[in-house]
Input
Amino acid sequence: MARAPGKYALAAAILAAISSTSYAFAPSQCSSRTTMPSPTQTLLTMNYLQKEMSATSSSSNEAKDLGPSPVVVSKEAEALSHSKTTMKLTPSFDLFQMLPEDEGGHVPHIVAGNELRDGDVLKVGVPDTLWDMTLSDYKGLGGEKKIETLPDPFKMVEKELQPFSDSIKELVSTDQPVLSMAAKHFFEKRHGKRFRPVIVSLMSKAVAACGPESLEGEGRWEHSGASTIDMEGGVVTTKNHQGSEVWRKQGQLGQIVEMIHVASLIHDDVLDEADTRRGGEAVHKLYSNKVAVLAGDYLLARASVLLARLENTAVVQIMATALESLVAGEIMQLKSAPEELLRMESYLRKSYYKTASLICYACRSTALLGGHAYGSTVATACEEFGFHMGLAFQIQDDILDFTAAADILGKPALADMSLGLSTAPILYAAQEFPHLQPLVKRRFKEKGDKQTALEALYKSDTAMDKAKRLAEYHAQKAVEALLRLPQSEARDALVRLTYVVITRKK
Output
């Protein structure tokens, strides 16, 4: 257990090497609409250290103190990794709202990354039949409308993802039979719904419907990062997108995201000593801990190489930051102070690091590969959607941990409590029943702690409902971000996917 923070060390080292060399083999496609300067140091950044956010963290009137940040690199090392030309990314939880106002949430300060959030600029003269929709309009969430009136997200990309398993198996093949079998395990027999590749594929179609923006201000790094579009007119459209080089690279990004996700599952199962995953045996149970760790490392290494081949260093930095966030989430989960374990903000930050970061950074990267600058309205809407979608997904997962049987979940029920973790339902119960707070702070280590917490949760009239409302809050925020994009079948399919996320039973 003590070695957990090092589990992504191999991939982190590879990504650091990639980011310092990628310009050498990609001189043209890496350039952006506004010339993007070459980063000179490692781009693996813990972005909450940057100066722009100091005002946010120090403003006690507008934002609660979330406690010490999980440290992956020292401040000194972080300072050395930046130059005047590197992208100064801000973590999504400092860009977008984490909690509703009635629970102490606040609207973050405007900084690079959330500056352009106008709901009309991309849709002038373009009709939108969903412009004022809310998820509560639909059956299952309080309304009468049928969600089936919107395009089915899985059917829309079904043909594109049919060869996904075969393609990704080829990408991770190795001459070592045992390692190869372990690495391919989740892509052959236990591949799930491929939720993340579906999002990337749909998002690539949605951003193709958005024309490039003219951004004001010379030399601002947030106006860089867009891939050069090597096709007639230099612009991606819904007509020329399918089958293009841009489409291919966005599809490869979906594969990369799934590799990173699967690697994190394999590693997490080793750390948590889990027996099952996706309804079958965990990789380390099929082989061994050593093989599982190596398989996860190998997937991350392959993902890193493929990421470099997208030939966009801004995307490399963004996705490298997603990888770093996974490490931060593990450290936060292992090392949070007792008082932090009671805070809903800390729970949501951990959920961002472990789940939402990969989704939201993949969404913004999809926009960059489609020719949109980092700070554009399009790219900002994409990341904001991914941030809220990822949190809604995780909160719903945590609700199902208490309400669904293990054979439906595909993993042990009450797994989080067994690991000493408190999620939204228990945290709300602890607000209602203060006698639970010491149990949460000691991670349910004493005999009878888990039973006491469960009894209080099931006795509560509000805890589970509050958790569901929090998931619905983030799902609605995700939809509102999507509605800033012009209407298209892909965008509307993402709206339906958001509905599916918070109404699913497994």
Strands lie at 276-277, 280-281. Residues 1-68 have pLDDT under 50 and may be disordered. The first helix runs from residue 9 to 25. Residues 48 and 69 are 8 Å apart (CA to CA).
